[in-house]
Design a protein that fits this description.
307 residues, eight-stranded antiparallel beta barrel, eleven-stranded antiparallel beta sheet
């Protein structure tokens, strides 16, 4: 079964790996984020493939407002054997399995993460922290309509998320929501910035917005969807106040007619480097509010190229 959004059709075959282009920075990625129903814990996982560099990037984070940040970050993972998405390297195993295209994925990992209290510590060239065992066994089940971007090969799918996360000696049961997305094409993290947001309000409304920050160019993508209906828009804008390390402290995002206040609750940032280029990538578990009194949870990210 295919889903049609505007003039773009998303088919079951799109869930898998795509033939790479010739560009050095042609990449393909799968994102999975989640948050528990009360906002006490959340996380994100990303597998990114750069076949023309013969390397994969892997990130996995578990955070919470009252929790230590536990981060797995490796930009030198061997490419997974085609057509699968299973990776293995020193101290890390992870797999990402499409159980039913456009409906159901499972993600698992066993790794040693770095535990830190200050998110800025993860921007160090060699971060220092606690060695923390991390295990993820979660399922993402579609909870809405897939949305394909208009101008690029990428789609987003709102999901219910459930399963278990192991952090050190803790066993956390997750019964919440999240978003997953899949993207393929030239992806240059150091070319321009953006703000990306997705989440769920307490009345069941799902939303996503991307504010692409290219000087002199107004580019945005997004959707708002409730039960059985979705509206898409190119009118997306975001603003934020940030601290001295570039971590947003408060913000707003407007997606069509939906205006949201953003309050970051727990950061899970990554430092993205390649051939001397640097981009800071603060992702945050966030609380959202609307002027009419609704509230919700989700994730926001800000790509911040430095050089």
């Amino acid at each position: 079964m295919s889903e049609i959004v505007g003039e773009v059709e998303i088919g079951p075959e799109d869930e898998g790996r795509h033939p790479p282009g010739d560009e050095q920075l042609w990449g393909e990625s799968w994102y999975f984020d989640f948050f528990d129903g009360d906002g006490s814990v959340g996380g994100w996982v990303r597998l990114g493939l750069y076949p023309n560099l013969n390397v994969a990037w892997y990130h996995a984070f578990v955070v919470g407002p009252s929790r230590q940040i536990v981060a797995v970050s490796d930009l030198e993972v061997p490419m997974p054997v085609e057509p699968g998405l299973e990776i293995r390297t020193h101290g890390l195993w992870a797999d990402h399995t499409c159980e039913t295209p456009l409906d159901h994925w499972t993600v698992g990992n066993e790794a040693f993460g770095l535990g830190v209290d200050d998110p800025a510590a993860l921007y160090a060239s060699v971060p220092v922290g606690d060695r923390v065992p991390l295990g993820i066994d979660l399922e993402w089940e579609t909870d809405g309509t897939p949305y394909h971007y208009v101008a690029t090969t990428r789609y987003e799918i709102p999901c219910k998320v459930h399963g278990e996360v192991l952090v050190g000696d803790e066993q956390l049961t997750i019964d919440g929501h999240g978003q997953r997305d899949h993207s393929w094409g030239v992806r240059d993290w150091w070319q321009f910035g953006w703000c990306w947001t997705s989440g769920r309000l307490d009345d069941g409304t799902r939303f996503h917005g991307s504010d692409i920050r290219i000087p002199g160019v107004d580019v945005g993508f997004g959707y708002v969807q409730g039960t059985g209906e979705m509206s898409t828009t190119s009118a997306v804008s975001a603003e934020e106040d940030s601290d001295r390390n570039g971590f947003p402290t408060t913000g707003t995002v407007t997606i069509g007619d939906l205006s949201l206040g953003i309050q970051p609750a727990a950061f899970a940032p990554a430092l993205l480097t390649w051939e001397g280029k640097v981009s800071r990538f603060p992702r945050a578990l966030c609380r959202f509010t609307t002027a009419d009194g609704r509230a919700g949870l989700g994730w926001s990210e800000w790509n911040q190229p430095v050089t």
